[in-house]
Design brief:
This protein is mainly alpha-helical and 175 residues long. The protein has helices spanning 2-50, 54-71, 78-99, 104-124, 139-142, 160-163; strands at residues 130-136, 145-149, 168-174. The protein has a single domain (2-126), classed as Four Helix Bundle (Hemerythrin (Met), subunit A), CATH 1.20.120. α1 packs antiparallel against α2 (54-71), α2 (54-71) packs antiparallel against α3 (78-99) and α3 runs antiparallel to α4 (104-124). The protein is globular, with a radius of gyration of 21 Å.
């Protein structure tokens, strides 16, 4: 009788552990997919800035806010959890600044902060596919500005009217 109870208890805890582990892995897999979708919306925002379309940029930023909220702040565990909480907070702050702006140049300035956060983010967390870290050294009065792109060709979101092709690829980031 004791052996049956011990065996049943052991079986229960093994099953519980397996379910927890499978749920944890699925959460991580879903995180990568959802983070990739967030990056895809960021690329829509970048392209809107290339086109100097403030309305489309604000729409993409608003979409990113919704996606970020869906991802949530407490998705990962351990060191990744701490990194994500910091990244989440910065993205949230950057998006609030963008969506609170109406001036295209102000949106671009806040986009720079968002870009810096997401460049670090795609290095810390996997994304599906390839993104390019690009930079224009002349943006912001020669201070320079970086962004992510889905293509290698330079399409400068900071100075599209005067220096569309200004910049270069800093690195290719593959998930």
């Amino acid at each position: 009788m004791k052996t049956t109870i011990i065996t049943a208890s052991l079986f229960f805890f093994i099953c519980l552990g397996t379910l927890f582990a499978e749920g944890h892995n699925q959460s991580s897999d879903n995180f990568e997919s959802e983070f990739t979708e967030l990056i895809e919306s960021y690329l829509v925002l970048k392209d809107a800035l290339v086109e100097s379309d403030a309305e489309a940029a604000l729409s993409a930023a608003s979409q990113m806010e919704s996606q970020l909220e869906e991802i949530g702040e407490h998705r990962l565990e351990g060191d990744d959890h701490m990194k994500w909480m910091d990244t989440y907070s910065k993205i949230e702050s950057n998006l609030t600044e963008i969506t609170g702006s109406t001036d295209l140049e102000e949106i671009r300035t806040h986009f720079y902060g968002l870009s810096e956060t997401l460049i670090a983010g795609v290095k810390d967390f996997d994304v599906e596919g390839v993104v390019y870290h690009q930079q224009c050294p002349m943006a912001f009065d020669n201070e320079g500005g970086s962004w992510l792109s889905s293509e290698e060709q330079i399409r400068n979101p900071y100075m599209p009217d005067t220096m569309m092709g200004c910049g270069g690829v800093i690195e290719r980031i593959e998930g």
